[in-house]
């Protein structure tokens, strides 16, 4: 069953399930094998009582005899009929020998079935929209308004013939229809293939094409499409219309200025890295990428989302590439990100807080020492990649943040039930800000268990006092509250005074609602939906967070450009009048929300 859980936990939409629901769903799996050409679903027949997830192989989606889509590993079919109770509208046929996982209706076995946000045949899965105000003015445009025309070449074309088609069309791509499966070949594919010496002009173009091509629906926002490119490491997306047929192509160079290509350059280099040295070379592109994204005028939270995806990829690859050596153990592990990086709100100079959880294997020696040795090498390599470990000790080498699952769950739940113990509020807050980047189900099980523990009013009250102790640095009359001595005399800390109070409120909302997914802005909006915040309070906090994050990001970008040391400390008299005024108003508005919550939170509980 563990294999089922790990596979499903890495695939949308199942990655939105908590560990208990993942385990429950995995217990219902039946494995079915279909030979090439086998009809799995017939259109118009009785409603299905089960759906499938492709494990290996591929299946074709058939509409009135015509193949309209090709589904591969991790993609789902049959769910529309199961959930709607209607006959399946399209037929499904195995295009090659295929292994599938078969599931009954998931709703009776899941505690949170609403988290399974299925899309049409798995291609329209929902995810957090980090690009709401995206790439300059183009972000809120639909893909259909930004796409280029489709260029086709025959499925049996040679490399030379495909190159001629692309050249004559004046584009950088061509699509191929291989029995209804749509692939794409790009100018970059030609360059890589010829550089490797694997093909010549007479080779079939299909050997260098990508099947199936990554696609987005025509109504997808351009900002979201670009984030898809970064996450998947591609430079072209097929835009699909009715029947999921191609109606156009999105190119990365058309979404914003040419400099925006760098996140994809970094991502491709990360994926291609075979050594830590290769990975460090890829990561060396990060500072310039921050600068170029910022200079395009992209919204700052969109920049944060893009760079978070790149940082995630680096950490995952580091875990894969760092030698285990004599510290090998049979235990499965999960690496966790903590803090701002976990919330997808990194800054160029952010350190990376990490945790490590391993599975319990009864009858074996504790692997703690060996795993901490290995974790130390991973963190050393992380710093070689320009990502510093937490200076305050929130690292996977620290026994507080490196535990077996049983130990981690016991500790996390005890912090909820006994909030007066040392550091209980701090540590439970950190778990609420954790996000696994490997061993998804294992990693999520800790925060799932903590949030499933009954949270008493005593705990929630103590956590709120702890949360609102992070006060914006503004006085009762007019001036900012600044340091009066030491190296930062006359300065205020924009991060500690501006970002932390709002992020802490978002984290408190996550604990109260029992849902720790998403960024600070997502949590704030979830708080509004739950009645913990008013619409005005939510708007105030969201705008203040975006504004202060933008100020801090701008200062760090200037430090990169000037090769100076970045700092979140600023002297108010160094800010222009309008910035000082807006910052002061933002701080006061946040403080007012804190005050209202302190006096009204019980009445606002869901």
TrEMBL record:
InterPro entries: CBS_dom, CBS_dom_sf, cNMP-bd_dom, cNMP-bd_dom_sf, Diverse_CBS-Domain, DUF294_put_nucleoTrafse_sb-bd, GlnD_Uridyltrans_N, RmlC-like_jellyroll. Pfam families: CBS, cNMP_binding, DUF294, DUF294_C. Keywords: CBS domain. SUPFAM superfamilies: cAMP-binding domain-like (SSF51206), CBS-domain pair (SSF54631). PROSITE patterns: CBS, CNMP_BINDING_3. Residues 13-103 form the Cyclic nucleotide-binding domain. SMART domains: CBS (SM00116), cNMP (SM00100). Residues 146-201, 209-266 form the CBS domain. This is Nucleotidyltransferase substrate binding domain-containing protein. It comes from Rhodococcus jostii.
């Amino acid at each position: 069953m563990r294999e089922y859980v790990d596979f499903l936990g890495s695939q949308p939409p199942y990655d939105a399930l908590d560990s208990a629901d993942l385990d429950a769903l995995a217990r219902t799996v039946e494995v079915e094998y279909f030979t090439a050409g086998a009809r799995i679903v017939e259109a118009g027949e009785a409603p299905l009582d089960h759906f499938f997830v492709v494990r290996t192989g591929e299946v074709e989606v058939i509409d009135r005899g015509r193949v309209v889509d090709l589904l591969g590993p991790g993609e789902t079919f049959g769910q529309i009929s199961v959930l709607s109770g209607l006959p399946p509208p399209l037929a499904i046929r195995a295009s090659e020998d295929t292994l599938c996982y078969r599931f009954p209706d998931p709703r009776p076995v899941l505690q949170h079935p609403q988290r399974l946000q299925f899309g049409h045949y798995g291609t329209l899965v929902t995810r957090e929209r980090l690009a709401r105000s995206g790439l300059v003015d183009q972000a809120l445009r639909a893909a259909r308004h930004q796409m280029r025309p489709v260029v086709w070449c025959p499925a049996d074309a040679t490399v030379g013939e495909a190159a001629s088609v692309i050249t004559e069309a004046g584009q950088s791509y061509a699509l191929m229809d291989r029995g209804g499966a749509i692939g794409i070949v790009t100018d970059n594919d030609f360059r890589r293939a010829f550089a490797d010496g694997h093909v010549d002009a007479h080779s079939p173009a299909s050997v260098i094409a990508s099947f199936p091509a990554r696609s987005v629906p025509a109504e997808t926002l351009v900002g979201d499409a670009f984030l898809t490119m970064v996450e998947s490491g591609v430079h072209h997306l097929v835009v699909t219309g009715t029947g999921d047929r191609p109606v156009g192509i999105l190119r990365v160079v058309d979404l914003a200025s040419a400099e925006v290509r760098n996140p994809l350059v970094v991502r491709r280099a990360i994926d291609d890295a075979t050594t830590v040295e290769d990975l460090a070379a890829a990561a060396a592109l990060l500072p310039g990428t921050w600068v170029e994204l910022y200079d395009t005028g992209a919204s700052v939270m969109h920049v944060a989302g893009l760079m978070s995806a790149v940082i995630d990829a680096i950490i995952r690859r580091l875990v894969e590439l760092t030698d285990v050596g004599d510290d090998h153990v049979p235990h499965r592990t999960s690496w966790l990100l903590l803090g701002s990086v976990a919330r997808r709100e990194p800054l160029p100079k952010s350190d990376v807080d990490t945790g490590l959880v391993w599975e319990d294997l009864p009858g074996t020696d504790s692997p703690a020492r060996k795993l901490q040795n290995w974790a130390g090498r991973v963190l050393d390599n992380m710093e070689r990649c320009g990502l510093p470990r937490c200076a305050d000790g929130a690292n996977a080498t620290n026994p507080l943040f490196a535990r077996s699952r049983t130990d981690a769950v016991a500790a996390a739940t005890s912090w909820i039930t006994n909030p007066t113990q040392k550091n209980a509020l701090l540590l439970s807050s950190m778990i609420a800000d954790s996000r696994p980047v490997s061993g998804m189900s294992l990693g999520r099980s800790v925060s799932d268990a903590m949030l499933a523990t009954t949270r008493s009013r005593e705990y929630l009250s103590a956590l709120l006092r702890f949360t609102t102790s992070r006060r914006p640095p503004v006085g009762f009359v007019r001036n900012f509250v600044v340091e009066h001595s030491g190296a930062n005399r006359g300065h205020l800390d924009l991060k500690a005074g501006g970002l932390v109070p709002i992020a802490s409120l978002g984290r408190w909302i996550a604990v109260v609602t029992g849902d720790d997914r998403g960024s600070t802005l997502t949590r704030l909006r979830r708080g509004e939906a739950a009645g913990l915040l008013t619409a005005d309070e939510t708007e105030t906090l969201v705008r203040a967070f975006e504004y202060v994050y933008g100020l801090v990001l701008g200062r760090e970008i200037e430090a990169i450009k000037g090769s100076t040391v970045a700092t979140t400390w600023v002297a108010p008299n160094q800010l222009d009048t309008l910035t000082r005024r807006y910052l002061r108003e933002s701080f006061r508005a946040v403080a007012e929300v804190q005050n209202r919550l302190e006096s009204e939170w019980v009445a606002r509980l869901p």
